[in-house]
Design brief:
The complex is a heterodimer. Chain A is built from no helices and 11 strands. Chain A is mostly beta strands. Classes of the chains: A mainly beta, B mainly beta.
């Protein structure tokens, strides 16, 4: 059974600081997804990582994938309050967009 | 592109009644759609995979007779919660597969009183 673990589960940080969210998974996969969820809302796609070594950046967020280590990271640079949300990683072990398994989520609070 | 809608966005029903939730892919065809359930402060849990023209595949622990799924066309899947009980209250999210991505609907918040 595929397991996807995120840490930390909860992160409170000051504006302007940097931090990294980790996503570990237990089976081989070269497709990993990062999503953002605001309270009461559905998922917003942030990044799609499709190969080992993939790195993508959008604004203050950067995601990377190391398939050998079965690890993805979501790095936050100079956090701002608007980044406060819950972030999920999800792994597709079948390489076909099927049956995503989600991590437990990281609830991020950025304090002014 | 790749927009998925859900209807209704919010529904309150009485215990014992049934509720139907629709999931539509608005600008693409999806042979496969997925239904997830999310309880407060928890992650998304896959309930079932809905395939157009065939029976849905349910995850372990999900009662297929309680959560009826019909994928009638390439743009529409429906989830019917039959004989709903308060413990079925949750946020239900559908997604539609497009290429190597899943596109998520806005979710339906179900409250059973």
């Amino acid at each position: 059974e595929l397991k996807v673990e995120q840490n930390p589960l909860f992160l409170s940080m000051q504006e302007g600081k940097n931090y990294t969210i980790y996503c570990n998974y237990s089976t081989t996969s070269d497709r990993l997804y990062w999503y953002r969820q605001d309270p009461g809302k559905s998922l917003e796609s942030l990044f799609v990582l499709l190969s080992n070594g993939a790195v993508k950046q959008e604004g203050r967020l950067m995601a990377s994938l190391d398939t050998k280590a079965r690890l993805s990271t979501l790095h936050i640079t100079a956090a701002v309050h608007d980044l406060s949300a819950t972030y999920f990683c999800a792994v597709d072990p079948d390489h076909a967009g099927n049956m995503l398994t989600f991590g437990g989520g990281t609830r991020l609070m950025v304090k002014p | 592109g790749a927009v998925v809608s859900q209807h209704p966005s919010r529904v309150i029903c009485k215990s014992g009644t049934s509720v139907k939730i629709e999931c539509r892919s608005l600008d693409f065809q999806a042979t496969t759609m997925f239904w997830y359930r999310q309880f407060p402060k928890q992650s998304l849990m896959l309930m079932a995979t809905s395939n157009e023209g065939s029976k849905a595949t349910y995850e372990q622990g999900v009662e297929k007779d309680k959560f009826l799924i019909n994928h009638a066309s390439l743009t529409l899947s429906t989830l019917t919660v039959t004989s709903a009980h308060p413990e079925d209250s949750s946020f239900y999210i559908c997604s539609a597969q497009g290429g190597y991505e899943q596109y998520f609907g806005p979710g339906t918040r179900l409250t059973v009183t």
